[in-house]
Amino acid sequence: MLIYLLRRLNLLVLTALVLLGLLYIASLKMPGDTLTNLSGVTHPSQEQVARLTERYHLDGNGLQGYLAFVRQRLTGDFGLSQASGRPVLNELLQVIPATLELTILALLLALLVGIPLGVLAAGRRGPLPNLLWGGTLLGFSVPTFWLGLLLMLTFGLSLDALPASGRINLLYDVPFVTGFMLVDILLSDAPWRWAALWDAINHLVLPTLVLAALPCFIVIRTIRAAMLAEMDKNYIRALMARGVPRYRLVLSHALPNSLAPMLRLLSLQLGQIASGVIIVEMIFTWPGIGSWLLAAQYQGDHTALTGGVLVVALSIIVLTILLEIAQALLNPVIRKEIHG
């Protein structure tokens, strides 16, 4: 097991170094002054130019500059935002919790809905499995931006049933503690916190539904295919011959063995899910890292853009490796190879 984890750690390190190399090259090739793109200092004085040139080794060769760039970024120095003049890391810490809150709720919803529907779709009798299978095929063909705009125009503007944008009503001044709006509201002792909590939940409904759509369809399709394969295996037939009830076969044997392929496919779709987060945040004006990255792109804030891309890409890489480890622990064959 230790060797397996070390291999995954090596993969993480090598992938991160390649990513940092690409971002360093992009910083050198972006329009504008190279020193400004790396540090974020828009109008440096002579003293700042000398200090930053030494810090980023701009007067040395490319390898020295790359190593200096890696050292600065891995120690948390992402430079200053060219638009606001604030440290990029501080701005990221302000917007990341909003994205995490939305993404975690969407993935939990996708799992809670997708796994039971995937089990039902694996049934062999009745019209429900065919309807669920056809629904997943239709769901995959619906673009995220179209679904988001449709729900926003229908429930947010036409029916006025749910908020169409934002994270909470501006009337509520919730103190920033953790960055997670629901948690910060509960930690507040304001007399209006329950009304604010209900308002925040209403703001979450539409973006959560849109963001949960794609992973939910992925879960349904994967669970269905894995369940059909498991139910045809010899050990399931042997247990059926012994009189084991079907619900026990599904819940105790087939379903646990079907979770590993689901995690595998989800890990391969993390990039697409991350792009969906950016689209959803843009449509619903959600103040997360996706909206922040788009604003940095529009403003030509190259320092903030490279810092945000680094954080998003590293998060996808780490989550992919964690899901692969979880899949290995759930899969008896891979688990036997690891411990063997």
Automatic annotation (TrEMBL):
PROSITE patterns per UniProt: ABC_TM1
Keywords: Cell membrane, Membrane, Transmembrane, Transmembrane helix, Transport
Mode of membrane association: Multi-pass membrane protein
Key word Cell membrane present: yes
Residues covered by the ABC transmembrane type-1 domain: 96-327
Tree of life domain: Bacteria
Intracellular or extracellular location(s): Cell membrane
A Pfam family it matches: BPD_transp_1
Membrane-spanning ranges: 6-26, 102-123, 135-158, 170-188, 200-223, 265-284, 304-326
CDD domains membership: TM_PBP2
Family indicated by similarity: Belongs to the binding-protein-dependent transport system permease family. OppBC subfamily.
Protein name per UniProt: ABC transporter permease
Organism: Ferrimonas gelatinilytica
